[in-house]
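User: Fold this; tokens only.

Assistant: Input:
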Amino acid sequence: MKGDSATRRIVITEMSDEQIDQLLTTMRERRLSIVRVKQEAEMAKHAVRVEHLRERIHKQLGMLQKELDAADKALDKAELRVFKIRALRLEAEG
């Protein structure tokens, strides 16, 4: 800012309206850039969390598939058992 240096800081009461407007604009831009960095970091954090959750879901789906396969085999065995019982009943009646 014009009139501002490391050895002599300009006092706001000595600033013109244009200088004050420029100071405010600069402060807003700096804040906005910080907000953008924060938002990007939050989005990256969210993306990592979503990916981690996807991995957990995939793992759970794999476990569920194994359990469904085991249930199918158990059901097949139960059906065979029912057929054998029916066959034995028919043989006993015959």
